[in-house]
Give the backbone structure.
Amino acid sequence: MKRASSVLGVIALVISMAAPLAAQSPPACTGAEHRQFDFWLGEWNVTLPNGRPAGTNSIQSINAGCGLREEWKGAGGSTGTSLNAFDPTSGPWHQTWVGSDGTVLFLDGGLRDGAIEVSAVTTGANGAKTLHRIRWTPLGGTPAAVRQLWESSAGGGETGGGAFGGEYEGG
C-alpha cells in the first residue's frame, strides 16, 4: 500500500510541476502577425473588373490558426490550391500555389500599407524570368470585400503586365 501511495505521490508531483510550465507557454500562432491575413478568411464570390464572374474562393484557417488554405474554382473550370503561413523565424508570409494549369509558385512577402503582398520570380522553359506579385487589399464594408491584383512582369520585373484582377465579395 505504501508503494502505491508513493507512486501516486510522484505522479501528483509531476503533474503539479508540469501545469505551471504549460500555463507559461503561449499557444502557437497567436501573435498579431499570424492574424494579418485573416481578412481573407471566408467563402467568396469573385468578379472581374468588368463585373463578370471569375469564380469562387474558399479560404479556411488551418492547423489551429497557424495557416490558411485556399481552394479556388474558376468560372471556366480551372482550380487551384494555396497554403499560406507567417514564418515567425524569418519574418515573411509564405504562399505555395498549385494550379490545375500546372502553375506552381512559391511566394514570400508580408503586410504593406494594410494589404498582404507576396512575390516570386519564376524561370520558364526558355530561361525567361517572370516576376509575379500578388496583393490582397481589404475593402471593408458589409458584406466584406477584398481586392486581389496579380501582376506578372516579363524580364524579372522589367516589363509590366497584368495577370488577374478580382474583387471578392461575401467573406
Remarks:
- The mean pLDDT is 86.
- The chain is about 15% helix and 50% strand.
- The helical segments are 2-24.
